[in-house]
Specification:
The chain has 236 residues and is α+β, with helices and mostly antiparallel strands. It has 2 domains: 76 residues, no CATH class; 151 residues, no CATH class. Helices cover 39% and strands 22% of the residues. The protein has 5 helices and 12 strands. The strands form 3 sheets. Strands 2-1-3-4-7 form a 5-stranded mixed sheet, with helices on one face. It has a 4-stranded antiparallel sheet with strand order 6-5-9-10, with no helix packed on it. Strands 8-11-12 form a 3-stranded antiparallel sheet. Strand 11 and strand 12 form a beta hairpin. Helix 1 crosses helix 2 and helix 2 crosses helix 3. The longest helix is centred in the N-terminal third of the chain and has 39 residues. The radius of gyration is 30 Å and the shape is elongated.
Length: 236
Amino acid sequence: MFSILFSVFKASVLICIANDYCTRTYPQEYENFLFSVSYNLIYLFSKCQIIANKTCSKIQVLINKNPYLKQISDVVYKKHIEQNLIYKIDKTGEIVNNYSGEKFEYDSKCIYILADNERKTDAGCVNMEILQKQPMPTNYELSNIKFMLLEIKINDAAYKLDLKTDKYNFYVVGNVFDKQFFIYFLKNYHLHNFTNEEIDQITKLDIKIIDHNVNIKEMEITDTRFITIKKDEYTY
């Protein structure tokens, strides 16, 4: 061990001496040499990185096309596949239950939201579908719209809501945004602590939106007046 450390020390001393000698004796030539070596090393590294990325991409495409190789890859890397979940939400905005199967106990006083973990993007964005019936539909469509601004007012407080982030997306065709949904969203995504008494007193929610066509609209959201998301538009 001592001999290895001594060898490293000697090499370091020799490098320092050589560097000092070249710097003092051949300053311009030595500087050009260092620049040339650094440039070539950076170029070589970049070239190798590009080749490696292209090779990995081609290998990944090949693996994804072959179910057998895909299965082996998932086992080797222990890929965790999350199950889809259906959340049951009561009128207070609380998640009272969740289901991992396609069937759920339907209660007209509750809303149900499917978190589609199987079709989420590589970035981790999960599509959230508000279910209107059972069994769970598997052919939902994503909407092409997104509100530029969605602001909701409760008493004297105003909240800006984002229904699509890098984690979740509620812009799904057929999704209904009514009073119960917005209470759930505020409670679970904005951590607004409604009391049951406050919720009972809320008869409407005042909403202001700037839509995908840059139209400014103000709406009242109730149990019977709501926004429905369509493929290329929305209705109220």
